[in-house]
Amino acid sequence: MIGRLNHVAIVVPDLAAAAAIYRDTLGATVSAPVDLPEHGVTTVFVELPNTRIELLQPLGQDSPVARFLDSHPAGGMHHVCYEVDDILAARDRLIAAGARVLGDGEPRIGAHGKPVLFLHPKDFCGTLVELEQA
């Protein structure tokens, strides 16, 4: 069901500083920051030959990643994102297997302009999983 690894997301307390580390120290191509108010984050993507790293910073104190930073002030790995061919079929199959979809269970538009869903970390070895329509 799952396809390629789309990205690994890392929450950071300072997006500009983190982007500079990837760009200037590691020599990676880094996108411009984009605010995603519907997700409560500002995001930057680091392009790699085989996947991407998503750097996330809270967009306001009500952001889910603001709570993550409260527990992890230096930042850290937040989630992994896998591609799926059909997000609704994947959702239905996962629910039938007992997995929990976060939120209302309906896909929302993610950072790449494609539908996404998040799966409860307790159902996936303690890892928050994002599914993105390929």
Helix content: 10-25%
Straight-line N-to-C gap: 12 Å
The percentage of residues in β strands lies in: 35-45%
CATH topology: 2,3-Dihydroxybiphenyl 1,2-Dioxygenase, domain 1
* Uncertain segments: none
CATH superfamily: 2,3-Dihydroxybiphenyl 1,2-Dioxygenase, domain 1
Count of separate DSSP helical elements: 3
Category by helix and strand content: alpha+beta
Q: Identify the CATH architecture.
A: Roll
Rg of Cα set: 15 Å
Order of helices and strands: EHEEEEHEHEEE
Dominant shape: globular
How many strands, what sense, and barrel or not for the largest sheet? 9 strands, mixed
Tally the structural domains: 1
> How many individual β-strands?
9
CATH class: Alpha Beta
Arithmetic mean pLDDT: 96
Structural commentary:
The N and C termini lie close together (12 Å). The longest helix is centred in the N-terminal third of the chain and has 11 residues, at 15-25. The chain has 134 residues and is an alpha+beta fold. It is globular. It has one domain (2-133): 2,3-Dihydroxybiphenyl 1,2-Dioxygenase, domain 1 (Roll). A hairpin with a 4-residue loop joins strand 4 (41-47) and strand 5 (52-58). It contains three helices and nine strands, in the order E-H-E-E-E-E-H-E-H-E-E-E. It has helices at residues 15-25, 64-71, 87-96; strands at 2-11, 29-30, 34-36, 41-47, 52-58, 76-84, 108-109, 115-119, 128-133. Strands 1, 2, 3, 4, 5, 6, 7, 8 and 9 form a nine-stranded mixed beta sheet that branches.
Give a quick precis of the structure.
This protein is an alpha+beta fold.
How does the SSE layout of this entry go?
Elements: E1 2-11, H1 15-25, E2 29-30, E3 34-36, E4 41-47, E5 52-58, H2 64-71, E6 76-84, H3 87-96, E7 108-109, E8 115-119, E9 128-133
Parallel strand pairs: 1-5, 6-9
Antiparallel strand pairs: 1-6, 2-4, 3-4, 4-5, 7-8, 8-9
